[in-house]
């Protein structure tokens, strides 16, 4: 009987589990694996990889290695496959792409030893450090992308060192993402608290209207709301028109593509996520407690601090965690209303996937973003009772 | 029950309370005004998105309904949304019933795995699906988009239905059995009517999730698969015409419509099914 019940249960769960496994878990795993995978050189330059395996790292490799690198690279270029190799080596050290391309162009006229010709062309070809970098890039794994995504890299002797200042952009990016998320979360919590409280004490008819006005933006798509702000905050937009007509300003104020616009639009998008859990917690706080405290002579502020605030804390915690978790992953809103200095991690994951193709970095940033969100979910799971209750639409 | 019934607030009509009402009113206006402002802008007779508008006309709605691209995007959005809703609701409801019935270890793990798409940042899901759907030849297809949206929206169905099953009183099944119903009958006659509101809410969430989804569409939709949000995003990036405001108004109206259906379902459930503690929106 027990087994039949479980068989039925398994049969009911299986289709969804299969779907989620095939079209989510596996793609996610494969993507995150790109953060440590190092297959470009070994796949596209297999002979060179094999030759470098025999090289002991002392001096420079054999003439055969030089020849093989040039031949395999030329072949790859003819098949339009050289890009990943050049990108990979250039990521190891900026400038290697042009050095390799220069060697490739010149190699048509080489007579005699490739080794001597290449070294004559650019002395770096004779630098064991260069060959060390190539050998290091033959995989199968590399810590480089994760290191780079926290502004570190591997030095010449394999030690972990900080990246050059002009390349050290990622720690700043993480700090900025946290800063924006934290500010948005604080503003949402501070605004949602009195609002949820008022909604919880109003006569039912008024509460219904108020909740409806919270639910309308909650159900309206994030893109539509961001678009609304995009229009409103334009130089010629309604707000500037209003300010000018009231003679509050002489010139239109620049609001679009600023941090202010990002905060404004993000708070607007996320405020309902803070109000709704707070309202539901506050609705459940019995007025009897406050009355009891009053009858014992506690003044208003004390009743609030000692009784109401602690009782409403679960609502604050679950609302704030929800807002923070969503903020950290925000992409569309900052991308549309923010300037170049207001973009968050998600923007750079998209950027490294599409624009400046570096899938290793994109995957490493994605893994770190997932890790941060995972920690937040774990905190929510442990701290906030009823966090798992569904019905929250992201 | 209003505040008037609480003795201590009767002592003085406090300025603090008035301040609370004022703050709440202002914030409610802040929440709704940006959405409301789009309505007059979409009815502008002029070419620019300015207020006050230089007169009113339906020209931007006409523009929307005469544009191949917007119509295709509307069509795509509905096709993807409806297919996503059907698949997500069916599979999500079945799995919720399975998780409710099953008596085995690892249920929490399965639930966590199935809810993972809900807590994963959408950009991460988007690039994962971008890589893998292109690898299997489903990049730039509506099928790929439906798969992606199904994965994103199925946790809402699953969790909503599971929550309603867990609120379900097993004594009802015993009662049905004692009255001679076999398990299949008691499922159709007892369980299904009780979880129907949750299934409907889940389906609405699934449709809304798919209909609003932009980030995955940014990565895996070519112009032929553009959905409404994707087309709107393209429009904002190229040229900010009032047609975008008209599209926004149409999407807002649909969202409000979905919200109204959801409220109707909720009210129905409160009246007929759920215990009073589950009255949250």
Describe the structure.
The complex is a heterodimer of chains A (394) and B (281). With 394 residues, chain A is mostly helical. Chain A has 2 domains: 40-140, no CATH class; 170-383, MetI-like fold (Orthogonal Bundle), CATH 1.10.3720. Chain A has helices spanning 2-33, 40-44, 46-54, 63-78, 82-92, 96-106, 114-121, 128-136, 144-148, 170-201, 204-219, 222-232, 238-245, 259-283, 287-295, 300-328, 332-337, 345-355, 359-383; strands at residues 152-154, 160-162. Chain A has a two-stranded antiparallel ribbon with strand order 1-2. In chain A, helix 10 (170-201) runs antiparallel to helix 11 (204-219). The model of chain A is unreliable at 389-394 (pLDDT under 50). Chain B starts with 6 loop residues before the first helix and ends in a 9-residue tail after the last helix. At the A-B interface, helix 1, helix 10, helix 11, helix 12 and helix 13 of A face helix 2, helix 4, helix 5, helix 6 and helix 7 of B.
Brief summary:
Chain A contains 19 helices and two strands. Chain A is mainly alpha-helical.
């Amino acid at each position: 009987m027990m087994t039949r019940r479980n068989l039925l249960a398994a049969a009911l769960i299986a289709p969804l589990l299969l779907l989620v496994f095939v079209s989510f878990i596996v793609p996610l795993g494969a993507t995150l694996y790109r953060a440590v995978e190092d297959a470009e050189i070994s796949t596209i330059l297999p002979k060179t990889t094999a030759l470098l395996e025999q090289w002991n790292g002392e001096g420079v490799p054999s003439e055969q290695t030089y020849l093989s690198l040039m031949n395999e690279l030329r072949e790859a270029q003819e098949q339009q496959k050289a890009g990943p190799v050049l990108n990979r080596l250039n990521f190891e050290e900026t400038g290697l792409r042009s050095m390799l391309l220069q060697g490739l162009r010149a190699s048509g006229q080489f007579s005699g030893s490739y080794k001597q010709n290449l070294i004559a062309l650019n002395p770096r070809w004779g630098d064991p450090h260069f060959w060390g970098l190539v050998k290091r890039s033959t995989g199968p794994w590399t810590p480089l992308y994760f290191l780079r995504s926290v502004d570190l890299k591997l030095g010449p002797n394999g030690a972990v060192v900080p990246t050059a200042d002009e390349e050290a952009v990622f720690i700043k990016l993480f700090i900025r993402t946290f800063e924006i998320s934290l500010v948005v979360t604080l503003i949402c919590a501070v605004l949602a608290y009195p609002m949820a409280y008022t909604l919880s004490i109003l006569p039912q008819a008024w509460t219904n209207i108020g909740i409806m006005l919270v639910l309308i933006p909650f159900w309206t798509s994030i893109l539509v709301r961001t678009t609304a702000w995009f229009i409103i905050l334009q130089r010629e937009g309604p707000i500037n028109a209003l300010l000018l007509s009231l003679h509050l300003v002489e010139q239109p104020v620049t609001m679009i593509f600023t941090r202010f616009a990002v905060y404004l639009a993000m708070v607007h998008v996320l405020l309902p996520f803070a109000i709704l859990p707070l309202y539901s917690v506050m609705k459940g706080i019995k007025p009897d407690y406050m009355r009891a405290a009053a009858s014992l002579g506690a003044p208003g502020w004390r009743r609030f601090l000692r009784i109401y605030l602690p009782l409403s804390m679960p609502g604050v915690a679950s609302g704030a965690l929800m807002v923070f978790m969503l903020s950290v992953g925000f992409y569309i809103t900052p991308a549309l209303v923010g300037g170049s200095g207001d973009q968050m991690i998600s923007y750079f994951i998209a950027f490294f996937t599409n624009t400046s193709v570096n899938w290793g970095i994109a995957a490493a940033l994605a893994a770190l973003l997932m890790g941060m969100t995972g920690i937040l979910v774990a905190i929510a799971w442990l701290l906030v009772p009823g966090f798992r209750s569904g019905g929250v639409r992201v | 029950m209003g505040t008037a019934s609480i003795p201590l607030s009767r002592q003085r009509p406090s300025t603090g309370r008035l301040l609370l009402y004022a703050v709440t009113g202002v914030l409610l206006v802040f929440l709704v005004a940006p959405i409301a402002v789009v309505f007059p802008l979409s009815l502008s007779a002029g070419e620019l998105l300015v207020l006050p508008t230089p007169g009113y006309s339906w020209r931007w709605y006409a523009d929307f309904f005469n544009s191949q691209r917007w119509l295709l995007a509307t069509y795509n959005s509905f096709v993807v949304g409806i297919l996503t809703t059907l698949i997500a609701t069916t599979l999500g409801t079945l799995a919720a019933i399975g998780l409710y019935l099953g008596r085995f270890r690892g249920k929490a793990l399965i639930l966590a795995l199935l809810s993972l798409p809900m807590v994963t940042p959408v950009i991460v899901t988007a690039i994962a699906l971008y890589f893998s759907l292109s690898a299997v030849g489903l990049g730039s297809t509506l099928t790929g988009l439906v798969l992606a949206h199904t994965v994103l929206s199925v946790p809402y169905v699953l969790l909503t239905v599971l929550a309603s099953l867990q609120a379900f009183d097993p004594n009802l099944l015993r009662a049905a059995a004692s009255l001679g119903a076999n398990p299949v009958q008691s499922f159709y006659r007892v369980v299904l009517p009780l979880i129907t509101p949750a299934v409907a809410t889940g389906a609405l969430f699934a449709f809304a999730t798919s209909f609003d989804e932009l980030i995955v569409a940014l990565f895996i939709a070519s112009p032929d698969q553009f959905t409404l949000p994707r087309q709107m995003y393209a429009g904002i990036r190229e040229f900010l015409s009032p047609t975008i405001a008209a599209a926004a108004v149409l999407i807002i109206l649909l969202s409000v419509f979905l919200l109204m259906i959801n409220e109707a379902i909720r009210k129905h459930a409160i009246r007929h099914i759920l215990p009073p503690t589950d009255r949250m929106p």
